[in-house]
Amino acid sequence: MSRSHQHKVAVVTGAARGIGQAICHRLAEHGADVAGIDLGDLSETGALVDSVGGRWLGLRADVTSQEDVARIAAEVAAQFGACDVLVNNAGIYPRVGWDELDYDTWKRFFRVNLDSQFLMCKAFVPGMKAKSWGRIVNITSDSIQLATAATTPYKASKMGVIGFTRGLAGDLAPYGITVNAASPSLTRTPGMYQYTGEARLNEIAGRQLIKKVAVPDDVVGTILFLTSEDSYFVTGQTIFANGGLVFL
Questions:
Q1: Do residues 90 and 63 lie in contact, with contact meaning Cβ atoms separated by under 8 Å?
Q2: Domain limits of the chain?
Q3: Digits of tens for pLDDT over the chain (248 positions)?
Q4: Distance separating alpha carbons of residues 139 and 193, to the nearest angstrom
Q5: How far is CA 221 from the centre of its chain?
Q6: Which uninterrupted H or E stretch holds 34?
Q7: Beta carbons within 8 Å of 7's beta carbon, 6+ residues apart
Q8: Spatial separation of the C-alpha atoms in residues 42 and 58, rounded to whole Å
Q9: Contact 2, 30 (CB under 8 A)
Q10: What are the residue ranges of helices labelled H in the chain?
Q11: Helix and strand tally (H, E) in the chain?
Q12: Contact 68, 45 (CB under 8 A)
């Protein structure tokens, strides 16, 4: 197993299950010390990190809260030191039709899917600047290029992630920090089953060039590259790890 992330400190939001859990597991396999952030139970993710001999810190927190984010930044620094790798994976994706969409729901999508990324970057970028090295990956969505209904606030917030990524890449490039976005295909995760079923997963897979229902590990290789030393010349990009469903 490659130790490409040896001596790196990684922070991953939305870490309790699904794609975030897989990211934590694989970063630990590659040598990183991993802090996983979620409102949910992180014990399963911690056990996966422990199983590969990784150092783990599980923190229950609301990443839309400035106070919680400040607290977890202090706890990560105390346990592991400054963050090297930040993966902003936390997100919500319920389907909401236009007639049912109210302003509070609209704002909630932006708080979780976009504002949390801003808050996490504000908290952890100073440590990266001090090291003159950092890797930030923000998770966006293929849905921005698909014709679907009842996804207006989701698509708007995920388009905002791409704009945020491109802007921040310009601000942080002088400090040796890269900022990229990664977009998985519709993926078989526990959270996704709240909003869709196996038939929809298979329908999307049938439209991909690689006709396979995506699972969390299918996007993790992209995350590992974008958070490695080898990605030093890649910044401001959106990488679609989606089996060829859509092209950017």
A1: yes
A2: 9-241
A3: 678 999 999 999 999 999 999 999 999 999 999 999 999 999 999 999 999 999 999 999 999 999 999 999 999 999 999 999 999 999 998 899 999 999 999 999 999 999 999 999 999 999 999 999 999 999 999 888 888 899 999 999 999 999 999 999 999 999 999 999 999 878 777 766 566 678 888 888 888 899 998 889 999 999 999 999 999 999 999 999 999 988 87
A4: 19
A5: 13
A6: strand 33-38
A7: 31
A8: 6
A9: yes
A10: 18-29, 43-51, 66-79, 103-110, 116-131, 152-172, 198-207, 217-226
A11: 8, 7
A12: no
What is the spatial distance between Cα 207 and Cα 164, in angstroms, rounded to a whole number?
Answer: 29
CB 209 within 8 A of CB 175: no
Q: Which numeric CATH code is attached to 9-241?
A: 3.40.50.720
Active site residues: 154
Torsion of CA 191, 140, 161, 190, to 10 degrees: 10
CA quadruple 133, 138, 142, 143: dihedral, nearest 10: -160
Cβ neighbors of 244 (< 8 A, separation 6 or more) are 208, 209, 210
Residue 18: its H or E element: helix 18-29
Q: Please give the single-letter amino acid code of residue 188.
A: R
